[in-house]
Specification:
27% strand, five-stranded mixed beta sheet, globular, alpha/beta, 4 helices, 5 strands
């Protein structure tokens, strides 16, 4: 299955649901969704990869790029990764130390709220 990317609005942070396979031929879908959200003023974004079967270096590069851009603007990227195979990939590449990875969407949204509050104290 090719990549399927859907953006859902949530009052805490937009959620980008990614399913299928993100590789050289489909990474542009994920890239476009993230660029549109960031360009539209979103500073906290959750990427739900619970239904992602595969991601290659191109897809990882899209996530790293979005993470860097959000951090530069005082925001954060929260990832939901449930597959042990994908978690291993993030560990092997060292991205577990560079990115916030969560087991559930609720945990990722809570982290997005905390990050937002930390960057914009009342």
């Amino acid at each position: 299955m090719d990549a399927e990317v859907k953006v859902l609005a949530d009052r805490r942070a937009p959620i980008v649901h990614v399913a299928g396979k993100v590789d050289l031929s489909s990474a542009a879908l994920l890239h476009r969704a993230l660029v549109d959200l960031i360009g539209g003023g979103s500073h906290q974004i959750v990427v739900d990869m619970a239904h992602l079967d595969f991601i290659d270096s191109t897809g990882l590069g899209v996530l790293v790029g979005a993470c860097k851009r959000l951090r530069a603007e005082g925001g954060s990227l929260q990832l939901v990764v449930t597959s042990s195979r994908l978690l291993d990939l993030f560990r092997i590449t060292g991205l577990t130390t560079a990115m916030s990875i969560h087991a559930t969407v609720d945990a990722a949204l809570a982290a997005a709220v905390t990050a937002s509050e930390a960057s914009h104290p009342s």
